[in-house]
Amino acid sequence: MTVAARPLFAFDNSYVRELPGLYVDWQARHAPAPRLVLLNDALAEELGVDAEALSTPEGIEALVGNTAPEGAASVAQAYAGHQFGGFVPRLGDGRALLLGEVLDVHGQRRDLHLKGSGRTPFARGGDGLAPLGPMLREYAMGEAMHALGIPTTRALAVVATGDDVARETMLPGGVLVRVASSHLRVGTFQYAAVHGGPDLVRGLADYAIARHHVAAREAPNPYLALFESVVEVQASLIARWMLVGFIHGVMNTDNMTISGETIDYGPCAFMDAYDPATVFSSIDEGGRYAYGNQPGIAQWNLARLAETLLPLIDDSSEVAIEAATEVLRSFADRYQRHWTEGMRAKLGLVGEQPGDGELITDLLAQLHAQHVDYTSFFRALSASARGDTEPARSLFLDRPVFDVWAQRWQERLVEPEAASATMDRVNPVYVPRNHLMEAALAAGTAGDREPFTTFLDVLARPFGERPGLEEYAAPAPAGSEGYRTFCGT
To answer: Which residues pair with 160 in a beta bridge?
Structure first.
């Protein structure tokens, strides 16, 4: 008796089934010579997927979109968005496709999504393709953020297409296979509100509650509770970004998830010297999405979500606005609570004391004034708790000023040895520093995978210092101040 081959993925398609009007059926552009560049074996295992089967020619054809895996419902998702403050009522997946959803080994529903798979009806004049380099960047960034404990989309694979992509020069093309809790965005709600009205928004909100915010279903006002839950997860997420020095680069409303995961690693980067005005994105000429602006922008984006939910919150617009505004105002306190708790952990502070806020503020002012590397400082400070002040002190030009602050900090510590251990658990040694990322991407794009896979291995264990990896922990070299990142479109 012949045994039927096991499907590559056990797909379900709840988004397609439950949300007509928020997608178009579409197929990927054919890739002429697909080649597997990276496969995330650990993520495949988490998804309950056979990594060996994905590595076969048949598996690679499915990963690049040349063939539709059994059970897939290939669609381009619709969404709108405020891009740099200006509203665009119809954006959508211009170069991406949702293949479907799988239940992972923990019973969690996860989207499987192709990025760089060709033009869709939402492409708006773009070619729908992606250079290999930006897809490798998204893979590395997602894995780095995951290792840092920050909610994020991740990549199951990167496949070279065999095509060249026209940008400033001709570049090799690639497709990223992205895994997310979902691709529901603030922009999805905006699209539903503009093109479908309250009924479509209600269906989308019910779907979001069932998939991400189940507790809201039992609340007296489920849609207000949904909004409050999204405000909370985003306050937590942005605080985590800020604590590690991450700059998203393009915080448009179509890049803010309802689940609270980081999504769309385009012109993103990690800050080197501490400066709230830091911008790396080549398209953010006005600094709208600078490091220090991220909490405020998140709250602004959430206000746009609230606008779409008002008809669901209450029949009276006045009552709905008042209720939603009260929740929206809570974002600042929620963010500050998450950020302050995280900063206390970074400094090894146990409990809460009245002078903590001033201690933190004074430190950040010094880091800024003296152009101190953010990641290096916090890791070096744990040595100070053990009695070795030189690693942190040496990062400052005006060391006596730092000494005054350090004395205050030392007096605040309860148990210095325990504080040092706590600090090492939250202050990474290794982050995807920009100069290292560029070197790894250049090698990976040119076909030399070894530097890139080494880089990934370093990023996978960010908190433990390892001999021989000193270059990965070192600050950016002199002359890196003008570094710019690009989204690959």
So the answer is: 35, 174
CA dist list (Å): 382 to 128, 327, 348, 402, 471: 47, 38, 8, 15, 20
What is the reported pLDDT for 39? Answer: 97
Are 202 and 210 in contact by the 8 Å Cβ rule? The answer is no
Residue from 93, 206, 254, 424 carrying the catalytic annotation? 254
* Element spanning 302, H or E: helix 294-313
Of 93, 98, 141, residue with least CA distance to 254: 93
Beta-strand runs (E) in 181-266? 246-247
Tokens of 41: 């074996």
Rounded to the nearest 5 degrees, what angle is found at the Cα of 306, between the Cα atoms of 112 and 220? 95
Residue 125 has pLDDT above 90, yes or no: no
pLDDT at position 392: 97
8 Å CB contact between 400 and 239: no
State the Cα–Cα distance between residues 431 and 270, nearest whole angstrom. Answer: 7
Q: pTM higher than 0.90, yes or no?
A: yes
Is-catalytic flag, 127?
Answer: no
Local confidence band at 330 (pLDDT 50, 70, 90 cut-offs): very high
Contact 71, 7 (CB under 8 A): yes
For the chain, the structural domain boundaries read 14-180, 186-427
**92 touches 78 (CB < 8 A):** yes
| 82 residue type, one letter | H
Per the prediction, the chain carries an average pLDDT of 95
Q: Which of 91, 108, 111 is nearest to 253 (CA)?
A: 91
Phi then psi for residue 310, to 5 deg, are -55, -45
Residue 99 CB partners (closer than 8 Å, separation 6+): 9, 11, 68, 69, 72, 73, 74, 112, 113, 114
Residue bearing tokens 């590395």: 140
Q: Are 120 and 76 spatial neighbours (Cβ–Cβ below 8 Å)?
A: yes
Give the 3-state secondary structure of residue 444: helix
pLDDT computed for residue 283 by the predictor: 85
Tell whether the model's pLDDT for residue 488 goes beyond 80.
Answer: no
Per-residue pLDDT, averaged over 241-261, amounts to: 97
Token output for 96: 């991406």
Q: What are phi and psi of 133, to 5 degrees?
A: -55, -55
Per residue in 70-105, pLDDT tens? 999 999 999 999 999 999 999 999 999 999 999 999
Could you tell me which of 147, 178, 153 has the C-alpha nearest to residue 459? 147
Dist CA 31 CA 18 (whole Å): 31
Q: What is the pLDDT of residues 182-204, one digit of tens each?
A: 999 999 999 999 999 999 999 99
Distance CA 313, CA 20 (A): 23
CA distance 336 to 419: 22
Radius of gyration of the chain (CA): 23
Return the structure tokens found at 451.
């530097």
Q: CA-to-CA distance for 121 and 310, rounded, in angstroms? A: 30
